[in-house]
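Researcher: Here's my situation. A collaborator sent me these components and asked whether they could plausibly form a single complex. I don't have experimental data yet, so a predicted model of the whole assembly would be a useful starting point for our discussion.
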Amino acid sequence: MQLIETVRALQERSEAERAAGRRIALVPTMGALHAGHLALLEEARRRADRVWVSIFVNPTQFDDPADLARYPRSFEADLDACRAAGAALVFAPASAEMYPDGMQTAIEVGELSWPLCGATRSGHFRAVGTIVAKLLLAAKPHVAVFGEKDFQQLAVIRRMVRDLNFDVEIVGAPIVRDADGLALSSRNRRLDAEARRQATALVQALDAAEAAASDGVRDAARLLSAVRAKIARAPRAELEYAELRDPETLRPAPAQLGGPTLLALAVHMRLADGGAERVRLIDNRVLRPALRAGGSAG
Amino acid sequence: MQLIETVRALQERSEAERAAGRRIALVPTMGALHAGHLALLEEARRRADRVWVSIFVNPTQFDDPADLARYPRSFEADLDACRAAGAALVFAPASAEMYPDGMQTAIEVGELSWPLCGATRSGHFRAVGTIVAKLLLAAKPHVAVFGEKDFQQLAVIRRMVRDLNFDVEIVGAPIVRDADGLALSSRNRRLDAEARRQATALVQALDAAEAAASDGVRDAARLLSAVRAKIARAPRAELEYAELRDPETLRPAPAQLGGPTLLALAVHMRLADGGAERVRLIDNRVLRPALRAGGSAG
């Protein structure tokens, strides 16, 4: 497995692979790899001849410097995991390589960036769009694989790729969950035992809403109160948002759901009872409300 | 010569040329081709195996709809000119191909976009950056050639390419001038005879400043008054700006020039005496002030 640290060297490698007729799949990560990332690598392997992983904790997408400082890092273990998973190459640039002196260019995706995580994390998706564009232009892959846990991020990236004519296929891979249902996230490492236990409230809330939708409940307010009731049962959890939105446009869903609808959650788990430190977790599911006899197709 | 109208077809063509080991040079234009453009094509030919020209009058970069409506168009003649100049391919997309439904992504280059033309043309460089990125991602050339008449545009594009890791070499080609010195521009076609005659005030102003700088004048205020005096002798000309700036950063030059300095001009030429209709022209030159005995190297 090759370790590359400069954009120039990566571009040369990409040109050489392309000239040899090989397909490249890139898996962009911020390291702290877990089984969710490994599922992305497997998806990449199914779609290309070479699996490349980038590991870069992008400072500009953290709105809170403390969150950046505490973001888990495990570089040597990450390299081992990539090697074991059959990655051909890891791209791990220093910050100065990605943010050269005088850097002043940014990519903005409009409407898709505004709600949900965009509402509280100022500049987050601008930073995400910019760094992903940079990684795509550095690696020049045929395919890039992202996790569906960051649903809005995936929507923003798909839109950017289409809008700017990037010649790359964007693939979303399903959320990977622990045995008790908690969506895998690098941030889970920061949870204490009690917060970890209570964090299952997120998936329980999604399950409850999905079960209700399958039973024919299409009333958005009713679905969201079922969600809030589940979160309320976890005293360590503070709900940032629970929203129903169109999965394509991320516009608010109608009061009566008419078709597939994104249910997206963001929750802050307090570490230690009464403590100020919190870990932000997100999760989502696309609900497919059942059509009952006499119901409208919307 | 091949005529291509879709991004997809252009990307496939690019992949095929690259797979065959051929170098592509792209010359992005808004059509209405003149000898200045042909010089860009010659420069492209020197640097690549295939010269590709894009012809797209980008609506979003016109801040004034009337300016867009009046922008000269000569598509058939442009195709003939490209063919005669040995272009292998012309990319001429419809507006809907470049601006698909729901398009919401834009590229912003910061500080370099703010002064000079950016001060009055709101959103202009955001639109330029975005469309040039789209053209680079559609054609995937090895080289792209731009004219130095649009000095700030070239600076913005160079910065964007470096900041986002575009794997393309950006080449600037010198300004081409008519026999009397007027910089070639598609907009010159809109000048009446008198405005055309008086438009030479721009190059005379540049010449005057350059002569003064060569004589050792390094006082910015003195150089700019020489410029303004020349423009004032053309009653049809209204000065928008005359500025001395650092050629790399476009920051204001010091009161005493210390090294190579951009002198940039924008002038509106009134069509018919007292008429409201005007044609906006720009021109520039990099002054290289002589160091006089006892002068400071700055």
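Model: Some features of this prediction you could bring to your collaborator: Residues 29 and 55 of chain B are 5 Å apart (CA to CA). Residues 293-298 of chain B have pLDDT under 50 and may be disordered.
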